[in-house]
Amino acid sequence: MTAAGTPTLSPVASNSLILIAWLGGLALAGTLLVGVWWALFADRSRGVHRCPRCWHRMNPAVGLRCSECGHLVFHEQALLQTRRRWLLAILCLLLLVLGTFGLRTTIASRGWWTMLPHRAVLAVMPWLPPSGHLIAVRQHMLEELGQQHVSPDDTVRMLELVKGGDLLTTPGTDAWRSTHLRWLATLEDLYTQRLLPPDDPLRLAAIDLPPVIHVNVPERWHRGEPLVGMVEMEDWWPAGVEVTAWIDEIEGLPVDAAAQDRLHRTRWRRPDREPRDGSRQVFAIDLGPLPEGTYRGHVTLSWRTHDRLGSAGLTGQGVVRMPVRAVVRGDAPALDRIENPALDALIAQTFADGILRSTTLPTRHIFSYAPFFTSGEAHEAVAFGLIVEACEAGTPRRTLRVWWRGGINRAQMGWESPVEDVEALARLGSGEGWTLRIRGDQELARRAAGGGTGDEASRWWGGSVEGPLKVSDVAPDGFGASWRATVEPPGVSPAASR
Ligand SMILES: [Zn+2]
User: Fold this and answer.
1) Contact (Cβ atoms closer than 8 angstroms) between residue 473 and residue 455
2) Do strands 266-270 and 365-367 pair parallel, antiparallel, or not at all (unpaired)?
3) Distance between CA 116 and CA 310 in Å, rounded?
4) Residue 174 DSSP code
5) How far is CA 304 from the centre of its chain?
6) 74 CA to middle of ligand 1, Å?
7) What Cα–Cα distance (Å) separates residue 475 from each residue in 123, 192, 478, 479, 483?
8) Separation of 79 CA from ligand 1 center, angstroms?
9) In angstroms, what is the span from residue 60 Cα to ligand 1's centroid?
10) For residue 56, how far is its CA from the centre of ligand 1 (angstroms)?
11) CB 246 within 8 A of CB 266
12) Model's pTM, two decimal places?
């Protein structure tokens, strides 16, 4: 594939120009065909005797020699020939052949898709088999979109095509994501960056775009300890869309009744995020402790979007069944507790920015932290599990539980929805009288320890640090909105609380 913007590959041609070119070409081809027919068959004798050389009228009763040019014929039949203009016929045919050849060459070099109106290309796309052709067609439409040549109606059609997936790519799957990501990203730019009005058809069409969801659980785990999976969701919903997710079904995993009940009553909600923060959004699901065994199961998650900005209040929804594999073996190996002033100082540094505050975003307060302070090789074997609290006169008002692995690879990072007292946080002011308290927690650290993968952490940080709480106000786009879990009271049917 050539680079975008190559002039010969992306002609600046609007749909109407393409249409005019086609109509003009057809008219010309028709004229040439008529020309050939006229030159060869139109001038029949119709019973009139003519000299076959100079086409002077002759009377065979008078004689068979032309009085004009002296040409002599031997049968009367020779005077009834059709007059054929060979030069004109050949010229017309030549032009037709040249035209056809030119069209063929253009199609071969530029592709038929560059020579059809967008609407026709989009209508044909679902019927194209997966091939280099299809890739080139997608690329072409992407370039047209990038150069703002695609009409609003066709832009919505492009989004609908993405939502429909194609032969090999079921919407919401990884294959679908990788096939359509570039269209998705470009279309998303259109309905986010350009600040379309809330009722713009493109924005509304994006409300039920399927997300791509995975659940990551440690493949190896220990009995007696809660197995926590991180649900990772990548989505392309427009700003102003709120999301709720819940677990419909857990298959093939012996999750105990208490955990089942708690999970079925849990709703994860994310307020709309504006602007997009680009990160993949995650939330934790706690499957509870599992007995020993090897499990291959599925977790089925439902999602529902609700448009807060558009006047129709549209909703979208879908269901994703995600595979989960876990091997649960004996007791967890012991982790050594470490605690030293140097590591305490690193943790203090990690949370030095304290709390970020926004007055406009749906999430008003977040902890700011920089886990890369613990990425040194020396901390490779250390699992960090931290309970972080913003305290007002010693009382926690916001609590975050977070875990990650020291060293370079922080793949096992995760966190749980923070618990906060919104009213108390409104009194935060400059942070005077407030403190930041961080404690190491072995059970949380276990979540980042490696779970029997052979590359396990052997130590956990068991220290605690406390100091003044720093508070900074951030720009309106300072941070995105994160997921919050709420557990509905027992007895509320899941359907009713959706
Ligand atoms: Zn003659």
Assistant:
1) no
2) unpaired
3) 34
4) H
5) 17
6) 14
7) 44, 18, 5, 9, 21
8) 10
9) 13
10) 5
11) yes
12) 0.74
Dist. CA 87 → ligand 1 center (Å)? 19
Measured between alpha carbons, how far is 165 from 138 in angstroms, rounded to an integer?
Answer: 13
Which residue in the block uniquely carries the two structure tokens 């060979």?
86
Q: How far is the CA of 35 from the centre of ligand 1 (A)?
A: 25
Cβ burial of 434 (10 Å; 0-12, 13-18, 19+) is: buried
CA 235/CA 205 separation, integer angstroms: 14
60: buried, middle or exposed (CB in 10 Å: 19+, 13-18, 0-12)? middle
Ligand 1 center to residue 222 CA distance, Å?
A: 110
Encoded amino acid at 85, one letter: R
| Ligand 1 center from residue 66 Cα (angstroms) | 4
The domain limits of the chain are 15-115, 151-331, 336-480
- Please tell me the distance between residue 39's alpha carbon and the centre of ligand 1 in angstroms: 20
Distance 36 CA to ligand 1 centre (A): 25
Cα–ligand 1 centroid distance for 78 (angstroms): 12
Domain 151-331 CATH superfamily: Immunoglobulins (2.60.40.10)
User: What is the Å distance from ligand 1's center to 34 Cα?
Assistant: 28
* 162 in Cβ contact with 144 (< 8 Å): no
Q: Ligand 1 mean position to 59 CA, how many Å?
A: 12
Distance from residue 72's CA to the centre of ligand 1 (Å): 8
C-alpha 47 – ligand 1 centre gap (Å)? 17
Q: How far is the CA of 189 from the centre of ligand 1 (A)?
A: 77
Contact at 8 Å (CB) between 282 and 233?
yes
Q: For the chain, 498 residues long, give each residue's pLDDT as a single digit of tens.
A: 333 333 333 334 566 777 788 888 899 999 999 999 999 998 898 889 999 989 998 888 888 888 889 898 888 888 898 999 999 999 999 999 998 888 888 877 778 888 888 999 999 998 888 888 889 999 999 999 988 889 999 999 999 999 998 778 889 999 999 999 999 999 998 887 666 888 999 999 999 999 999 998 888 888 888 888 889 888 898 888 889 999 999 999 999 999 999 999 999 988 776 555 555 668 889 999 999 999 999 999 999 999 988 888 899 999 999 999 999 988 777 889 999 999 999 999 999 999 988 887 767 888 988 888 888 888 888 999 999 999 999 999 999 999 998 887 666 788 887 888 989 999 998 888 999 999 999 989 988 887 656 678 889 999 999 999 999 888 766 666 678 888 888 865 554 444
Distance (Å) from CA 32 to ligand 1 centroid:
30
